[in-house]
Amino acid sequence: MRKEVIGPSQLFAMIVLFELGTALVVPIGLKSGHAVWLSILMALPGGVLLYLIYYDLYRQFPELIMSGYTQKILGKAIGWPLSLLYIPVLMFNGSRNLREAGDLLISSTYDRTPILVINAIMVIAVMYILNKGIEVFARTAEIYFWIIMIMGLVCNFIVIAAGLVDVKHLFPLQADDWWDALSSAYPSIWIFPFGELVCMTTVLPHFNKPRKAKRAGVMAVILSGLLLTFTHAIEISVLGENIYSRAAFPIYTTITLVNVANFIQRLDALVILTLIIGVFFKMSIYCYAATVITADLFKVQDYRKLVVPVGVIVLFSSFMSAENYTSHLNEGRAFLKYILPLLCAVIPILLFLVHHVRKRFGWYR
Amino acid sequence: MKVKMRGCLIAYLGLALSLTGCWNSRELNELAIVSGIGIDQGTKPGEYKVTFQVVIPSATATSQGANSGASPITIYTSNDHTVFGALRKTSKQASRQLFFAHTQLLVLGESIAKSGISGVLDIFERSHELRLNTAVLISRDTSAASILKVFTPQESIPSIGLSKKIQNTSNVWGENQRVDVFELINKMTGEGGFTVSGLRMIGNVEAGKKKSNLEQSDVETTITMGGQAVFKKGKLVTWIDGPEARGTDWILNKIIETNVDIDAGEQKKAVAVNVLLSRTGVKVELREGIPVFHVNVSEEGNINETKSSVDLSNTEEIIKLEEAMEKLTKAEIEQAFQAAQQTGVDYLNFGNELKRTHPNAWRTVENEWDQIFAKGTLDLKVEAYIRGTGMRLAPFMSPEK
Amino acid sequence: MMATRTTKPKKSQTEDSNNQSSPLTENLDDNLQHIREGLGNSLDLIIRYFQTIDDAPRIAAVYMDGLTDKEIVNEFISHAMSFQTVNEEGQKLTTSLDIYKYMKEKALNPGKGKSVTTISELFEALLSGNTLILIEDMAEAICGNTSGGEVRPVSEASTQVSIRGSKESFTETIGVNISLVRRKIKNPNLWVEPMTLGAVTQTSMAIMYIHGIVNEDNLQNLREKLQEIRVDSILESGYIEQLIEEGGYSPFPTLYNTERPDSVAGNLLDGRIAIFVDGTPFVLIAPTTFFMFFHTVEDYYQRFDISTLIRLLRFLCLLISMFGPAIFVAALNFHQEMIPTPLLINLASQREGVPFPAFVEALMMEVTFEIIREAGIRLPSTIGQTVSIIGGLVLGQAAVQAGIVSPAMVIVVSLTGISSFTTPAFNMALSVRLLRFVIVFVAAFMGLYGIAILALILIAHLCSLRSLGVPYMSPIAPFALKAQKDTLIRSPIHFMKIRPRLNNDNSNVRKKVVKGKRVNTNES
User: Fold this and answer.
1) Chain A contacts of B188, Cβ < 8 Å?
2) Domain contains B3
3) Which of B213, B240, B267 is the last residue of a domain?
4) Is the pLDDT of residue C14 over 70?
């Protein structure tokens, strides 16, 4: 079979879509209040740094995915179980994204539709595209990158044109605000959404121009960081801190306020579309990462065979993991605090250090 | 293998699709489109009397071949402890399910306003159907239910008419301002009090709720804007009218366009200036525990009418008029400020401003802000500019006899 | 109609092929008998006998009536028979061999006569419009090209009409078609490779490309695919299209067809390959991308700003014709809040009396529209008028007044119908129309969410398609910045210095044809 390859612009599009995914829609970094935009900016350098670590590891082992080089660096005895740890976490995180999309859809329009059906339809699409392979996925991402950009532009333009933005809500920044911003930037925003890029380590081996991976990736992380900053700043400046912090989906509330000339109103559909697209790509990458790591660890030749089982597990865990949205959010908080940092930051940094130490002292056989 | 897989996928897809049924699918002719909601105090304590104004599409003027005899709206009323409960109870009267996404107007009765409105707004935030940008008005000296029953000329659906009315007057007169649910919630969660525009009924409901009310050039019953209701902690405390109301909007930077009649020398109120642009900047500071409110207003306008003999081609005369305009605006704003201090409610947004810019100073006065506000001083600066005089310079004069 | 892929003719085929590949005998009567039997004593087989002098060998001329031009046949025969009975040395030409040699080398212009030795060769030559001369005691026949007969003249394009640009279109004759293109590209690098396909029909075909511009990998790929084809009949280029398509079950066509020589020429200059099939005016172009279906040659003839706007309009129409009714149904049934209030009240009052759900209403109208469209195409143009008048009544006022549909639905359906006709390629418009039904269906079940998910799957599917190895959605995905000058928009001609990248193109720069150079770069 022909090796599937993806190009720089496709990698760029995938990273941006992955980053924007759910982070655009759910409130992030709540502790920082109206300075959330500052927190995102503060977390951005950390995100870039983290990507560079993933990138370095990829350059060291250009043919291997995460689980492959974990075993090389730490040895099979430690590396294999450690990689195994990633599979449930990735699937769980994918299912959480799915849950968020399902919940927004249910609370916005589909209040009488079971979440099983809503999520199942999304999972079918994910399974379909993963069956087509990562190359097709990357090309689709490229098209949707433009669609998302255009929709984002339209939404932002309309919100601004409707005269809803009140910059007063963003300023002034007091000394406390800077401190709050920093404390919610690290580790919370640093890990979500930037740390989640750890999934990309499974995609990178398909990259056709290894040298360009650095540029494309870093640019994508910076662009998505700036877009997130801008969007959340707009949301706060429209809603004010109080409503922003109480809203389940602030971007949705923001767009419902739009009323231009009594005709352009209720653009909720655009936001829901953005969310569907974002979650679709984010979840697909999670599922892909989980699938290929499983395939790699259990020596399955064709990862496509695993797409359906992984999809079904993600689907069921999406609505069985939490009884309601409140407990879902609380689970997420704990997950973000204790588990994700380990997998997204600690282990990659550890791998990076161990690898360079072993290389330096020639401890590789 | 691959074909099998694809077959499975297709079967799965088909199954999932057929399972969906049409849970959320609703035909338009199964919906009763609610155009306005009115909330009054119920008969029992703690109960709401909720009134729904529902559109009858086939009788509206917009539709082709509208049946002129039928009423374009109908009214349903229910009592319950919650708004949602009341709207569900309405199903006993309505043949179709109430649909709220196009609600244009929320009228809060004076009764409920006096006993507190904080409870009724949550459903507007929480529901995905109700819009946050629905206009909110307070009925003055009458119930919300009767306001919703009255037909309005020109607009076949009264709620739309009323929401256009408030939009229109806040755009060109400035005594009232359009407040929607979203703003109202923001104000309620902020510090101090706030104001919401009121509605008044002229005439009686019995005449107004008949369509025949519209079959005359001067309608018997009509609804007009009636000042602004001042709220403190979510409860209506008093009403402000006229210059006080407009001065309040001036401080709140809500004036979009208005008219001021200024004195031309000896002649009182002889020149009409159309204010086309007005900006207000507010700064609050604490000087030894006493707040000082710096309010800077800059307004621009055109002279649209004069009955004086002032020579408008003369620059000096214009400067004089500008001074008069400043004086008049100043007087109006000061009047509004004093009225606010007398009620002891900071509905002028000064508290929020202080909190935003000086959070530490705010903490010291937070608890007794209303009293401290009443002691505060106003530092008002107004700059007025007259940009144009219309199609003529000097006014015409009839020859002196 | 004609048995194309049944097994029965195949059997007789194999029997026939046994004696067909057999060589000719020396017995003239046997040979002629063979021919008669082989063609089943067909009416249009004509055999004429000649004998110069009494003892000279008998000669027979064989040709097919209708496939040949009578004048050319007569000329050919008279030339062949113009030998004297005596050669230069005064010897009498009595033996068959002498006559054969004389006929082939002297009497006929050199090269005009070919020799045929087997029955199968003979049939192929005969059915291609050649005239064969058989001589007593000779196991070889002389054949000369006399093809002609009635063909349709070059006429105006009927399916791809243009305001500006050449008016000619291809005919059913492959030779004419090739010459029409050659007249546009007067360059020796325009190469034409002949081939024959169809075990029964023996259809002649040709692939045409510009050597040095065309991508050799694509060309080789196409040759292999064509050679792999095993089929009884090729009656139209549509057969070829379906046989070499990649991906199998896709609603989207992955080969472009055109009846305009200028369109073929333009695509050849872009490095594409044209496939000509005898008997049809429709020429296939490969490789094809999705966006080609929305381009017309006229785009390049009009000024760039106008062409750009028209192109964008076409893409807008594509979206309307695909998603129009679906979004309407979704908005009406699921997302009533999206509709502005006055419009909603209007729509509600229109729908008051309509007894059907919006989905059924939309479906009914769409099906009616398709019925009228199909009837309009199949009927003679005189009756077609009647159909469109009746159709207009059914779809329009009458249906509304009868209270069966709402006026807004009529507007939506007719708008989508008209939009679908703006797609220049008819086969793409058909695919879109088919998909429209699926999308309406999904919209009725899940509203906008269903549409969004289906659109995702659809775009993923489009991205997975390839035509001759070229990604179908290129140059959008994979994205190529330079190619954007001629995809959604049409930039001024002097900006378009780069040819579209079809796989790894060896000659991207326009206005310069690299001659006879074979490069196989392996990038991308």
Assistant:
1) none
2) no
3) B240
4) no
